[in-house]
Amino acid sequence: MGERVYDLVGIGFGPANLALCIALHESEEAKMKNFSMLFLEKQSQFAWHPSLLLPGAQLQVSPIKDLATMRDPTSSFSFLNFLHTQGRLTQYINREEKVPSRREWSAYLAWAAQRMDSYVQYGRVVTDIEPVERHGKVAFLKVLAKNLATGEQETVLARNVTTAVGGSANVPAVFREMYQWPPKNADEVSRVVHASTFLPQMERLDKVLQRIQLDERKEPLRLGVVGGGQSSAEMMCYLRDRFPEADLDMIVRASALVPSDDSPFVNSAAFDPESVTTFWESSARARRAQLDEFKRTNYSVIRNDLLSQVYEMVYDQEIDYHDPYMAPKGTVRVMASTTLLEAKQLDNGKIRVTTATTAGDKVVRTDEYDALFLGTGFERAASTLPFVHTLAEHFPLLSAEGVRELRERELAEDDLIATSPNPDAARATARGITRDYRLVPSNPARWRHDAASAVSLHPAVLERIPQSRMGREGSRENSVASARRGDSGYSSSPMPSSPKRELGDVLHRPGAPANVYVFGCNEYTHGLSDSLMSMVAHRAGVVSASLLASTPMAADASAAEK
Description:
5-stranded parallel sheet, alpha/beta, FAD/NAD(P)-binding domain
């Protein structure tokens, strides 16, 4: 085929693929190999969770865990260098705060993305990925995308594809028929709002709620928030400020709102780079136990400062004092140990919700709300990605049936690993994905490499992966020695001084395998940090090493073509 083939096409341009783009952009090896890459992003411009940029919202991770520092502390793409270039480094230090606002973090990510602008095409929705064969082997991948500006279908060819498109809204079954986003028509306004689309939905719903509030009916607005996590608490505070006279209910399954655990030992065990290797090397039972143990770091938990703010709302209304200069405020209730039974939208637009208590005597109650706000999280599974219809035939992890079969074989995983001469390859075969995030095909020989190379780590990649504390003999001593030497564990990658290369300047590399990498859907195999900012820089180092390990030098590629 005469069409150009990129060494990498990335689907989505959020923090995960942005960090990878930066790592490859800074790599001297990538420059020597003339590595080509292109990223396709659905949004018209870079934006990071714009729907939840609420006033006062803060980042929930250390700013040192940015796009580059954990991979290369000398990178010019660090958060500290962003502050320096913006003339705010001293002022930021003077804040004496551990974390920046989510608004400032968004500005940092947008600044980094703008510097990588030549590698991205915005306004592209990927619809499918098809393997392209030569001589009975998969040679590369055809990525099909719709150009939102023109409506035309576009095709891009790639040796490797990385997917990093984030999660989809997890909407409880009782609300699914009522939740509509995007709306089917311009006049449609959903009374059920998910945190992932909070601000754009509120832009429409706000007018409806204001109209109801100005109505001459006697009762105040009644709003419900479902969920006991950070997003729920942020929406709760926003609604309290926007509609102070409204009655607010927070419906929570747990017995109490709980703080997120960001203590140092827990952070180290759950989110340090070497924790991924420890998790990967653990049995299925041990991995499940660790996910349960450390859920308190990320799921249904609230930052301490915000938790105190919610408690203050509840506490303050108990004070029996009428302030003559303050407008009356609605009642705030936290309905703990409460589960949803059913919900129905009434003819007047209200939503009738039936709940039941799960602690003490069971109490079933029915309440009517003017609107419901869902802080119920996201679904993150590779099999639910909207563009893997064709690839699902080749990779078990991309189909619900394939995932079910992998889970059923899990019981035999430990025996398989114990008897295998290559434990890491055995783990990858059993789990459908490698340690360096490549999907394992059901028929590896068809993908232009043998079964062993399909699931094994290249030696160059192993150098980028910190050894687990419980792993190979001497790993702790080696890491301590490296720390004393000041060795970061990665090769130095200074910024290239030459002008940026044009996109797609390399033809297909002959003989190399086609790979599909998946980010953000691998909590079950790579740990809790997989979908979080904590790991993007480290993962970028691992994946860039994996990509470059299978990419020959430009001269070698030319010789092979001849």
